[in-house]
Amino acid sequence: MGEKRVLTEIMRFEQEVASYVSNDFEKVYEIWVQDQFNKLPKRVQSKFFDSVDQWLLYTYTFLQGTNAQNESYNRILQVGRTYDEHVEKIEDLRHLSIEKLNYLTDQQVARNRVYAFVQGGVSGAGGWLLLGVDLPLMIGLNLRTVQLIGTCYGYNMHNPIEMLIALKVLHAGALPKRLQYEAWQNLKHDIDKYDSLMSQEKQLTNKTWIEQPLKNIFKTLAIIMFRKKLFQGVPLISVGIGATVNYKTAKDISDFAKRFYQYRFIQKS
């Protein structure tokens, strides 16, 4: 019954993504972004995405080695043992019911959304340094969330294949709504082929990802515009913009990641 209910929720999520219709502004914006990016030499475009891919891989590896991440994995295992004392390693979590795994996941997601909200607020209130590192911090925080979600459903994030899958999920979850359905379908289509992905995939990011940095630039400009609007010495509007945008981004990515790993868990169970 639990898996049937979750599958119904996944189908509802998929229908919402599939039925999303871009408004006129989004269509014009998409054409403008692609047109501006296409003006760059092909060599520059390729180098840009290669650099982004390398940075994502380094960030993933760095996060995996931090004490905070290892402690989070241990807490997940400890909670898993309260359900089944035979849980010894991450893969053993797959023997638990999906309802219990959903509870584990919701704990991690809720905590990381608060982190995203606070980080966005601090960036809105801080100086140029905090604004400059806002995008890397936001991506790193959301990548950490995807890692924890995958772990909750019994996938060992130290596995190179799981690293690639997590990065693809992060990329898909960060896409504009109008592009998420195709990305969702591609992830579903490859669900039985992940063992061969390491030799097939050459590039993680592509032109569809370029809107995320631009979105962050517009957010930064909005923060700067309202920075001098102080309420008792605090730029509340700038803080609100940073916190709200980062929270929504974290919510969109975590929702997408949760649905994907739920679907993958059910298909493999």
Structure description:
The structure is a single chain. This protein is mainly alpha-helical. It has one domain (2-268). Helix content is 75%, strand content 0%. The chain contains twelve helices and no strands. The longest helix has 33 residues, at 236-268. The protein is globular and about 55 Å long. It starts with a helix and ends with a helix.
Query: How many separate domains?
Result: 1
User: How far from one another are the termini?
Assistant: 14 Å
**Total helical segments:** 12
Task: Please give the number of β-strands.
Answer: 0
Strand content: under 5%
Low-pLDDT regions: none
The pLDDT mean sits at 84
Order of helices and strands: HHHHHHHHHHHH
The 3D shape can be described as globular
State the assembly state of the protein chains.
single chain
Helix proportion of residues, in percent? over 70%
User: Based on helices, strands and strand pairing, what is the structural class?
Assistant: mainly alpha
Largest sheet: none
Rg, Cα atoms, Å: 19 Å
